[in-house]
Design a protein that fits this description.
single chain; alpha+beta; Alpha-Beta Plaits; 4-stranded antiparallel β-sheet; 8 helices; 4 strands; 37% helix; binds inosine-5'-diphosphate; NDK-like_dom
Protein backbone atom coordinates (compact mmCIF):
# COMPACT_ATOMS: atom_id res chain seq x y z
CA UNK A 1 0.00 0.00 0.00
CA UNK A 2 3.00 2.29 0.62
CA UNK A 3 3.32 3.69 -2.90
CA UNK A 4 -0.31 4.87 -2.71
CA UNK A 5 0.30 7.09 0.30
CA UNK A 6 2.12 10.13 -1.08
CA UNK A 7 0.55 13.29 0.31
CA UNK A 8 0.38 16.70 -1.31
CA UNK A 9 -0.80 20.14 -0.26
CA UNK A 10 -3.44 21.86 -2.40
CA UNK A 11 -5.44 25.03 -1.88
CA UNK A 12 -8.21 26.84 -3.67
CA UNK A 13 -7.05 30.46 -3.70
CA UNK A 14 -9.31 33.42 -2.75
CA UNK A 15 -10.49 33.89 -6.35
CA UNK A 16 -11.56 30.25 -6.59
CA UNK A 17 -13.39 30.41 -3.26
CA UNK A 18 -15.24 33.60 -4.24
CA UNK A 19 -16.15 32.18 -7.64
CA UNK A 20 -17.73 29.07 -6.11
CA UNK A 21 -15.19 26.61 -7.50
CA UNK A 22 -14.40 24.64 -4.31
CA UNK A 23 -16.90 21.88 -5.06
CA UNK A 24 -15.85 21.39 -8.66
CA UNK A 25 -12.17 21.29 -7.74
CA UNK A 26 -12.72 18.82 -4.88
CA UNK A 27 -14.79 16.65 -7.24
CA UNK A 28 -11.99 16.44 -9.76
CA UNK A 29 -9.55 15.05 -7.20
CA UNK A 30 -12.17 12.66 -5.80
CA UNK A 31 -12.99 11.40 -9.28
CA UNK A 32 -9.31 10.89 -10.03
CA UNK A 33 -9.16 8.43 -7.13
CA UNK A 34 -7.17 10.54 -4.68
CA UNK A 35 -8.06 10.40 -0.98
CA UNK A 36 -8.87 13.56 0.97
CA UNK A 37 -7.07 13.39 4.33
CA UNK A 38 -7.49 17.01 5.51
CA UNK A 39 -9.42 20.14 4.55
CA UNK A 40 -10.30 23.53 6.02
CA UNK A 41 -11.52 26.96 5.03
CA UNK A 42 -9.07 29.46 6.49
CA UNK A 43 -7.79 33.01 6.31
CA UNK A 44 -4.05 33.29 5.56
CA UNK A 45 -2.32 36.05 7.56
CA UNK A 46 0.76 38.05 6.48
CA UNK A 47 3.17 35.80 8.37
CA UNK A 48 1.86 32.59 6.82
CA UNK A 49 1.81 34.23 3.37
CA UNK A 50 5.49 35.18 3.78
CA UNK A 51 6.40 31.67 4.99
CA UNK A 52 4.49 29.98 2.18
CA UNK A 53 5.72 32.21 -0.65
CA UNK A 54 9.18 33.02 0.83
CA UNK A 55 10.98 31.73 -2.27
CA UNK A 56 9.42 34.64 -4.22
CA UNK A 57 10.26 37.41 -1.74
CA UNK A 58 12.61 39.22 -4.11
CA UNK A 59 10.29 39.01 -7.12
CA UNK A 60 8.46 42.12 -8.35
CA UNK A 61 5.08 40.40 -7.98
CA UNK A 62 5.65 39.38 -4.31
CA UNK A 63 3.72 42.20 -2.61
CA UNK A 64 0.75 41.72 -4.92
CA UNK A 65 0.86 37.97 -4.36
CA UNK A 66 0.79 38.40 -0.56
CA UNK A 67 -2.04 40.93 -0.83
CA UNK A 68 -4.05 38.56 -3.04
CA UNK A 69 -3.53 35.41 -1.00
CA UNK A 70 -4.54 37.24 2.22
CA UNK A 71 -7.53 39.01 0.59
CA UNK A 72 -10.13 36.39 1.53
CA UNK A 73 -10.48 32.79 2.64
CA UNK A 74 -8.66 29.90 0.99
CA UNK A 75 -9.69 26.25 1.05
CA UNK A 76 -6.65 24.24 2.14
CA UNK A 77 -6.49 20.50 1.53
CA UNK A 78 -4.24 17.47 1.78
CA UNK A 79 -4.75 14.77 -0.86
CA UNK A 80 -3.16 11.33 -0.81
CA UNK A 81 -2.48 8.79 -3.55
CA UNK A 82 0.05 7.31 -5.93
CA UNK A 83 2.37 10.03 -7.27
CA UNK A 84 -0.10 12.56 -5.82
CA UNK A 85 2.11 15.67 -6.01
CA UNK A 86 2.95 15.31 -9.69
CA UNK A 87 -0.53 14.14 -10.66
CA UNK A 88 -2.18 17.13 -8.97
CA UNK A 89 0.21 19.50 -10.72
CA UNK A 90 -0.77 17.94 -14.03
CA UNK A 91 -4.46 18.43 -13.25
CA UNK A 92 -3.78 22.10 -12.35
CA UNK A 93 -2.18 23.08 -15.66
CA UNK A 94 0.59 25.65 -16.07
CA UNK A 95 1.28 28.54 -13.68
CA UNK A 96 -0.30 30.91 -16.22
CA UNK A 97 -3.92 29.96 -17.01
CA UNK A 98 -3.38 31.44 -20.49
CA UNK A 99 -0.85 28.67 -21.19
CA UNK A 100 -2.94 25.93 -19.57
CA UNK A 101 -4.70 23.29 -21.65
CA UNK A 102 -8.49 22.96 -21.56
CA UNK A 103 -9.35 20.17 -19.16
CA UNK A 104 -6.92 21.41 -16.54
CA UNK A 105 -8.19 23.44 -13.58
CA UNK A 106 -6.38 26.64 -14.56
CA UNK A 107 -7.16 26.02 -18.24
CA UNK A 108 -10.87 25.65 -17.51
CA UNK A 109 -11.32 28.34 -14.85
CA UNK A 110 -8.68 31.06 -15.30
CA UNK A 111 -7.41 33.69 -17.70
CA UNK A 112 -4.98 35.72 -15.58
CA UNK A 113 -1.60 34.76 -14.07
CA UNK A 114 -2.21 36.68 -10.84
CA UNK A 115 -5.60 35.00 -10.30
CA UNK A 116 -4.88 31.38 -11.12
CA UNK A 117 -7.43 29.72 -8.82
CA UNK A 118 -5.36 26.98 -7.22
CA UNK A 119 -2.05 26.15 -5.55
CA UNK A 120 -0.44 22.73 -5.43
CA UNK A 121 2.96 21.70 -4.07
CA UNK A 122 5.74 21.71 -6.66
CA UNK A 123 6.70 18.11 -7.53
CA UNK A 124 10.11 19.32 -8.77
CA UNK A 125 10.93 20.82 -5.35
CA UNK A 126 11.92 17.81 -3.24
CA UNK A 127 9.97 17.76 0.04
CA UNK A 128 7.81 20.80 -0.79
CA UNK A 129 4.66 18.74 -0.29
CA UNK A 130 5.60 17.71 3.27
CA UNK A 131 6.86 21.21 4.16
CA UNK A 132 3.63 22.84 3.00
CA UNK A 133 1.44 20.26 4.76
CA UNK A 134 3.36 20.99 7.99
CA UNK A 135 2.98 24.73 7.46
CA UNK A 136 -0.79 24.63 7.02
CA UNK A 137 -1.97 21.64 9.05
CA UNK A 138 -1.46 20.22 12.54
CA UNK A 139 -0.95 16.47 12.61
CA UNK A 140 -4.30 15.96 14.39
CA UNK A 141 -6.12 17.69 11.52
CA UNK A 142 -5.11 14.90 9.12
CA UNK A 143 -7.32 11.81 9.15
CA UNK A 144 -5.93 8.31 8.66
CA UNK A 145 -8.52 6.00 7.09
CA UNK A 146 -9.02 3.50 4.30
CA UNK A 147 -10.91 4.62 1.23
CA UNK A 148 -13.20 1.76 0.21
CA UNK A 149 -12.88 2.45 -3.51
CA UNK A 150 -9.07 2.03 -3.45
CA UNK A 151 -9.45 -1.58 -4.61
CA UNK A 152 -11.04 -0.23 -7.80
CA UNK A 153 -8.58 2.62 -8.30
CA UNK A 154 -5.43 0.51 -7.81
CA UNK A 155 -4.83 -2.90 -9.36
CA UNK A 156 -2.69 -3.93 -6.38
CA UNK A 157 -4.57 -2.31 -3.47
P1 LIG B 1 2.93 27.77 -9.18
O1 LIG B 1 1.79 28.35 -8.38
O2 LIG B 1 2.44 27.24 -10.51
O3 LIG B 1 3.77 26.78 -8.40
P2 LIG B 1 5.07 29.72 -8.80
O4 LIG B 1 6.12 30.03 -9.82
O5 LIG B 1 5.48 28.98 -7.56
O6 LIG B 1 3.88 28.98 -9.57
O7 LIG B 1 4.42 31.12 -8.39
C1 LIG B 1 3.57 31.21 -7.28
C2 LIG B 1 2.40 32.09 -7.60
O8 LIG B 1 2.85 33.43 -7.80
C3 LIG B 1 1.67 31.72 -8.90
O9 LIG B 1 0.70 30.71 -8.72
C4 LIG B 1 1.04 33.04 -9.28
O10 LIG B 1 -0.20 33.24 -8.56
C5 LIG B 1 2.05 34.06 -8.79
N1 LIG B 1 2.94 34.49 -9.86
C6 LIG B 1 3.98 33.80 -10.38
N2 LIG B 1 4.60 34.49 -11.34
C7 LIG B 1 3.93 35.66 -11.42
C8 LIG B 1 4.09 36.85 -12.23
O11 LIG B 1 4.98 36.94 -13.08
N3 LIG B 1 3.20 37.85 -12.01
C9 LIG B 1 2.19 37.76 -11.08
N4 LIG B 1 2.02 36.68 -10.30
C10 LIG B 1 2.88 35.65 -10.47
Amino acid sequence: MSHHDERTFVMVKPDGVQRGLIGDIVSRFEQRGLKLVGAKLMQIDEELAHDHYGEHKDKPFFDGLVEFITSGPVFAMVWEGADATRQVRGMMGETDPADSAPGTIRGDFGLDLGHNVIHGSDHEDEGANEREIDLFFDEDELVDYDLSNAVWVYEDA
